[in-house]
């Protein structure tokens, strides 16, 4: 089993089957490892690679080679879906990821519903799908992970976020209508990218945290729609990882209700405890991104070794990496998991 | 204060706390119609209601959506009462420049602090999100602000906060402003290291901190 390919290892862990050791991955999307040190004048750079399938694939390949993460992850931002749904984005720079410059709608009620089957052929969804296709062709044994922005985060990037958060309570029917729309888009997007080579779908939903929403809204809105995407991924025969940010101490039971094959959480969640409380959950995480940026390699290595000892199923950074994170620290993380540090 | 007056202020507080914007506006108008003091109604009605909401927020019974709606109810009442507020010792003549530091677009925490400072009577100038360090300094000088409030949710942008303090020092205006910092990855230790005047772990505590720094400890 020591010669097990990275694709096989990740797939087995997600299916609760025994493996030689934990995989070490970085999904892409909100958790991408396209740090500035990976880019140079001989290869694709950001922000151009956000907009070009070949550049995106090549950059993902370089990230994989330079960091030692055992997957290929696309895209490198969370703006693909909101942009297609009409929000204006700021493409960012080499060291600063794209962000929403202006949300498309002032309220949930104002959101214009379009045909999701049509819009997934548009814009950068097509770019990501194509990049996944290139990557799978070139890397049969390494898992290609397509990262989607979760339903709540996407909705809060299409409708002015504070209004959206209020309307979850004041106009729940309007909010459901937007989330249903966004979710149908994500389901189509997931199917399309799976058809074109993605092995695993990752859903990053940073706004969908119990810390912001509270347990009840988290359950009624976040869990409900995230699960619709998870179920659709399963219906397409693939596995799904969900990342939730923030302090989930008041929403632990809701976390366990997510239909993901692994749950990834922030550094402030004790994964060992989560695993003890909910043995059915595959846990993923959660090497502090602050430590990765500001700490030294030895500390990163110690922190990583503790997670491995605690039996965390998949080792990964805890949240989005800063683009100024040093490769030596990222490699200390990946090499420790592989037993080479 | 008469029993009738107290009862009305209590109903106003409850309307805010129970997130009823229309009722808060209606009761605020009733305060004026009955000739009660507008500032008393703000203090014992609107602010009391938001404070109760803020307390539940700290206790994690209310979350961000509830707090935002309570703030809207408070604003609805404030829009009616504010033109009738006479001189008092609240924070109304103190200015705060607030923003999310460059590189970060998470602004929920900043918005909560802004709302709560406004509730406490501060004049708050919101520079928005992704604000370069120099812009904080320029705005604070131009507005003759008392306080500069810096927010970030990201570890990657924390160092920008230190740059604001460095620029203030380089421009020799450091002693004109109090600098406060907040956001989930921060700590008192970080605040001390970059030479800020204060750190608040929660939105409600940012208000107490600001009042203390500008010498308004006992003001509403």
Automatic annotation (TrEMBL), chain A:
Top-down, what is the taxonomic lineage of the species of origin?
A: Bacteria, Pseudomonadati, Pseudomonadota, Alphaproteobacteria, Hyphomicrobiales
Write down the NCBIfam families for this protein, in alphabetical order: PRK06252.1
Record domain Uroporphyrinogen decarboxylase (URO-D): where: 6-338
Sorted alphabetically, the Gene Ontology BP terms of this entry are: methylation; porphyrin-containing compound biosynthetic process
Q: Name one GO molecular function term.
A: methyltransferase activity
> What organism is this sequence from?
Rhodoblastus sphagnicola
UniProt-recorded name of the protein: Methylcobamide--CoM methyltransferase
Known InterPro entries for this protein? Methanogen_methyltrans, UROD/MetE-like_sf, Uroporphyrinogen_deCOase
- Name the keywords, alphabetized: Methyltransferase, Transferase
Give the Pfam families listed for this entry: URO-D
TrEMBL record, chain B:
Q: Which GO terms describe its cellular component?
A: cytosol
Q: Which domain of life is it from?
A: Bacteria
Which keywords annotate this record? Cobalt, Metal-binding
**Gene3D superfamilies named among the record's database cross-references:** Cobalamin-binding domain (3.40.50.280), Methionine synthase domain (1.10.1240.10)
Q: Does the keyword Ribonucleoprotein apply?
A: no
Mention any Pfam family matching this sequence: B12-binding
Q: Name one GO molecular function term.
A: metal ion binding
* Species of provenance: Rhodoblastus sphagnicola
Metal-binding found in the keyword field:
yes
Q: What family name appears in the similarity comment?
A: Belongs to the methylamine corrinoid protein family.
Q: Which PROSITE patterns match?
A: B12_BINDING, B12_BINDING_NTER
According to its UniProt entry, one GO biological process term is: homocysteine metabolic process
Classification via InterPro entries = Cbl-bd_cap, Cobalamin-bd, Cobalamin-bd_sf, Met_Synthase/Corrinoid, Meth_synthase_dom
- The protein depicted here goes by the name Cobalamin-binding protein
